[in-house]
Design a protein that fits this description.
Helix content: 55-70%
Structural class: mainly alpha
Number of strands: 0
Largest sheet: none
Number of domains: 1
CATH class: Mainly Alpha
Organism: Rubrobacter marinus
Order of helices and strands: HHHHHHH
CATH topology: Serine Threonine Protein Phosphatase 5, Tetratricopeptide repeat
Number of helices: 7
Protein name: Tetratricopeptide repeat protein
Distance between the termini: 58 Å
Length: 144
């Protein structure tokens, strides 16, 4: 438990605060968003479970169920790239390029919005070039 307290700014080793005061993981701006409409992590655990169910549905071959579940995550602006990647791939495999483009552009907008929590933003920044290239590929497919 001590490592959790240290991580989130609680007591340091042996009941002392770290030098310079407690260490905070969230910035004051991020702390203010907690529980508000701007908090993209509200319902994170439920969305994570939904994405797990979608992956299981894919594994069973129930692609329609997987699509429905991933669509919910995209509609709720899930902070991770996985549902966007999988949903776009599923639409692409069914030659639904406009749908694949819609999902890919949704992630690009979210990644560029600056609204993501810090760790998710770093991940989105790494994934963004891949999603932009994928969106361009879908645009070319729709033109031909």
């Amino acid at each position: 438990m001590r490592w959790i307290r240290k991580l989130f700014g609680g007591e340091g080793e042996r009941g002392r605060e770290p030098e310079g005061g407690p260490r905070r993981v969230l910035s004051p701006e991020e702390t203010e968003k907690i529980g508000t409409e701007e908090d993209l992590l509200v319902g994170y655990e439920a969305a994570l479970e939904r994405n797990t169910q979608a992956a299981r549905a894919e594994g069973r071959g129930d692609v329609e169920a997987a699509i429905r579940l991933y669509e919910l995550s995209v509609a709720e602006e899930f902070v991770g790239a996985h549902p966007y990647e999988r949903l776009a791939a599923l639409h692409e495999s069914r030659r639904r390029y406009a749908e694949a483009l819609r999902v890919t552009e949704a992630y690009v907008r979210l990644a560029r919005s600056g609204r993501l929590p810090r760790g998710s933003q770093r991940s989105a920044d790494r994934k963004l070039p891949e999603f932009e290239a994928r969106a361009e590929r879908y645009r070319r497919m729709l033109e031909s």
